[in-house]
Amino acid sequence: MDRELLISAIIDHAALYHGDTEIVSVNTSGGINRYGYADCRARSLKLASALKKKGMQKPDRIGTLAWNNHRHLELYYGVSGSGLVCHTLNPRLHPDQVIYIMNHAEDRVLFFDKTFLPLVAAVKDQLKSTGSFVLMEASDEEVSAEYPWIEFYEDLIADGDDDYTWPDDLNERDASSLCYTSGTTGNPKGVLYSHRSTLIHAMMSATPDVMNFSAQDCLLPVVPMFHVNAWGTPYAAPLVGSKMVMPGPGLDGKSLVDLFNSEKVTISAGVPTIWAGLLAHLEASGEKLPHLTRTVVGGSACPPAMINKFRDLYDVEVLHAWGMTELSPLGSVNNLKNKHLGMPESDIIKLRENQGRPPFGIELGVFDDDDNQLPNDGVAQGNLYCRGYWVLTEYFSGDGGDPLHSGWFPTGDVSTIDADGYMTIRDRSKDIIKSGGEWISTVDLENLAVSHPDIAEAAVISARHEKWDERPLLIVVPKAGKTPDPAEILKFYDGKVAKFWIPDAVQFVESIPKGATGKMLKNALRDLYGDVLLAK
Ligand code: AMP
Questions:
Q1: Which atom of ligand 1 is nearest to the CA of 327?
Q2: What is residue 246's DSSP assignment?
Q3: CA 166 from chain center: how many Å?
Q4: Which residues form the pocket of ligand 1, taking CB atoms under 6 Å from any ligand atom?
Q5: Residue 213: how many CA atoms within 13 Å on its side-chain side?
Q6: For the chain, domain boundaries
Q7: What is the rounded distance in angstroms from the CA atom of residue 316 to the CA atom of residue 309?
Q8: Torsion, Cα of 450, 453, 457, 458 (10° steps)
Q9: pLDDT digits (tens, 9 = 90+) for 479-512
Q10: 97, 190, 229, 384: which could join 415 in a potential S-S bond, CB 3.0 to 4.6 Å?
Q11: Would the CATH topology of 8-203 be identical to that of 433-535?
């Protein structure tokens, strides 16, 4: 049959065959909501009906500023399912960026969690297209008295028709959702996803060599639904009928461990920073993770020390993944092949450290600066290019320049790819260090630094140097109560990397500046410390 690949089909399937499979959601204002996929679908349809009554029509953009919770999930399905575009906004952005992005996207309605009420109140008058502001709560007289312009989510749901059905005029190439990149320079750029790209991405995400979701799993996505659609997990989990646990605002180690263990979570996904907090909590409390079997780690490089800790102390398998907003986001995931099964344990451990290989639907290549494709031999290092079913062709509204180069999307990362397709990120092209004409990977140096027992966080930047042009500078946040010696830290690199890779100096700091998605802001560090070697 010739049927369109539509996002509504996912929640329809989940409701029909996994109707009582639970979605457990931590509410922003306390307490837990529990219901099944059938309830989620019914409320998504009512929401879609209420938005139609408000005059919304394809392809109007509907903004969200929200945590991972059941109402946000209903928005994913209710908005996209009815032909509107679900535009998830990152609340950690500077208010000026939120204003820029919402005006650029021309969001007509904004749904937001109570946490973000101060932000919404501050930016509201500068939003040119947004006519409705919906607080994702039941109606609340106190809030109404102070903010008369606010509508309430539960009122909208109550207003929706029970017999509403998904529109039958949607095409799989219609837009379904929108995310802006968290670039550190220039204006954020919009990436518009289609029903088709989202569905193909979700179907592939669930397969065994990617995230390996099944109806036996219980998924807790720590990665926020405002960070590239929580890496597509809110589509991939209902598609196979996994139970879902939505952690709401509590992303600290203790809250997460409590949820993992009480809800018997089997699989999770998140950025290394979150896992560092969770591992620190486990270390301090002595708790374990008896139900968690694996977790997807990506967004920035996962240090091998973290992979080892998860495996050795908690029996949790790390699936190291690489992706980008422009790729919906999955580009590669580290899973073994049949031929690796008999390999010595130490070789397997080494192999599992890199960013993995692309699933069907994504092709990766490394290219030199003149656009010549380099061999997949694990040695040739070049600019990582990508193409595939869920890679963008242009930025939203065309603002942000042409992202493609001879049919490929240059990712801005520098990598090697081996003959089996396993890709290793060496750096961002703008972060990599070129010292006396030789490349030095800051990622490798950071991974080693955080395996030092006294170091909590580390960043390596390129610092200007009179003789070598650039030399690595190691910036370190020591663990609480530790005062490591700089010379001893640098000695730690002996024998682990080539001599010329060893940083010239160590700079101690209290914290490392991070952007809205938890990535280190190396340009800010370069502004602060880029000249310290010259001064010396
Ligand atoms: P974003 O679009 O905000 O998700 O950022 C995408 C960028 O994050 C990529 O181009 C990489 O530089 C970085 N990134 C994502 N995953 C990884 C990973 N596993 N290892 C290293 N860098 C990563």
A1: 2
A2: E
A3: 29
A4: 181-182, 228, 298-302, 320-325, 329, 355, 411-413, 425, 428, 517
A5: 27
A6: 8-203, 433-535
A7: 9
A8: -50
A9: 999 999 999 999 999 989 888 899 999 999 999 9
A10: 384
A11: no
